[in-house]
Structure formats: structure tokens, C-alpha cells
Amino acid sequence: MNRDIHVLFGFDMEPDVGSFTPFYKGVREATSPILDVFEKNNVKGTFFYTGDAAVKNPESVKEVIARGHEVGCHSLMHETVGDPLFHVPLETALLPEEVFNRIEKATALVKSVSQEDPISFRCPRLWGSTSVVNSLEKLGYIADATYPMYFYRKQTKPYYPSRENWLEEGDSNVLQIPNFADLVMESNDGELGRDRDQWPLFRTEGADYLMQKIKTHIQFLQNRNEPIVLCFYFHPWEFIELEKSYHFGECTIIPDEFITKNCGDYAMEQFDLLIQQLLSLGATFHRIDEFAKQWKQNGVIR
């Protein structure tokens, strides 16, 4: 079994604070600095744009492509396209019969800006579903970096899902890539297990703390004789100074502390440090589209 460490960094290019504001300060101000850190360390990544983010920030999309990274899709408006795992204010999930048209529209908008067919996807909040996977297959996608390992805790390596149940292995052509979590620790979050997740530890606790989780997960995979694939998710708004609250329309949004904690320069510093520490372990960084193509060709990444 190959013991190489394969790292997939995905940025969810969405409104500031996810679905809770209509603003794109993060996309507009953080894209270039994030790309500078990638270039400094000579690594590649994938940037998942909502359709709305792409058409409102075409310069961001074009810079990502010009600097050698992948542009993927992240739904149309950062809505819940999959099965919700817990309640989020102001969020109502799409009906299964609405999913295909929604992703089709998002795909068309991203393509209109990038001039390329997006072939990698990630659901907002990592809330996927069988309807999403089947829709992606019809639209020509080859990878879905959605599976939240912290919650489902069954799939621990990339797999091709069943068209009847995306949580099980099957014969879909869309490679499902789990976002890793610390499955060894005892969770204090009941059935959800959100404290097992890697996000947002790189900035709330720091890169050194997250590296402890990474090494634990590597050992976990080695004990299972599985390939070492570490999929991460980040957001551009984490790399700007966020407001404590946002007033617009007829309400005020006050994010929980963990959303805004250590965003800005500290997050960028720890992000850079995280990359350096992963490289020191001998990790190889991949764009998700390139990773999926190699996986399909080899049966396992080599």
C-alpha cells in the first residue's frame, strides 16, 4: 500500500460568513493573498465558486485560473442542496427534484466566467445527498469533495458512491472525497460530532494543534492499511478581518465566536505554516480534478 500523503486544499468561494450575508469582501480581497501563499510554497488547490460569486467576481475566477489552480462549483447561492445535518437559521433545503436544475444553473454561471466546464463540486456546509451525486454525474462532474467524515464516520477514503445511496460504495462515475476528521477522539457534540472536524482549527487553535489531528488521522489510516488522503475546506472570508455583526435589510447578523475568531492576518499566517508543516511530512498537494483523474486511472492514487 502506498504510504504517500496526498493533500487536497479546497476553498469555498462564497459570501462572507457563508449564507448569512450578501457580501463578497473575502472573495475580492483574499483571493490574491491566498494564491500568493500557494505560489510561495509551490502547491496547487481547488476553488469552488458559487454561481453568484463567480459572476460578481470574475477577476477572482480569472486570477485563479491564470495562476494554475482549478475552478470548481459550490452551488448557486450557497444554498442547502443536500440533506441538512442540523438546523441553520434562514436555511431551507432544496427538494430533491429541485437539485438538478439548481446545480445546472450554477454550473452554467461558473462556466460563463471561467470559460471552462467545472468538473469538481462541493456542497455548502458539506451537506450532500444522493440527488446531488446523481445530478453531478449527469452534468459531467468527476469529483465531489463533500462527504463530512465527522458526521457519517464510515467512509474514510475516496470512493465511487452508489446511485441509490451516496453514503455507500457503488458504480457512480463521480469520485466522492471525504473531508477528514479525528475519528479517534471522544466527541462532546452528541450525535453530530462536529468537534471531530478539522475546520476551523487551523485558525481557532493554530496550525500546530491541527497538525496533531492530522498525524492522528494519518496513523488511523495506516492502521487500516488505507491510502492517506487529507481533504481540507477553507473560505476566503476567514482571511479578512470580519465584523462582529452585520446589519442589512431588516435584521442584524451576529456570528458565533468561532466564525470570527482569529480571522484575518493570523489565519493567513497559520495557513502558510500548515502548508509548510504538511510539506515537511513529504505531502503532495493536488488539484481535485487532477487527483480524481489519477484515482480513476490507477484505482488508487500513486
Could you say which overall geometry the principal axes of the C-alpha atoms support?
Answer: globular
Low-confidence parts: none
| SSE class | alpha/beta
Largest β sheet strand count, sense and barrel closure: 5 strands, parallel
The total of beta strands comes to 10
Whole-number count of domains: 1
Helix and strand element order: EHEHHEHEHEHEHHEEEHHEH
**Helical segment count:** 11
Q: Superfamily at the CATH H level?
A: Glycoside hydrolase/deacetylase
Instruction: Give the mean pLDDT.
Output: 96
Tell me roughly what share of residues is in helical segments. Answer: 25-40%
Strand content: 5-15%
Taking all Cα atoms into account, the compactness measure Rg is: 18 Å
CATH class type: Alpha Beta
CATH architecture level-2 label: Alpha-Beta Barrel
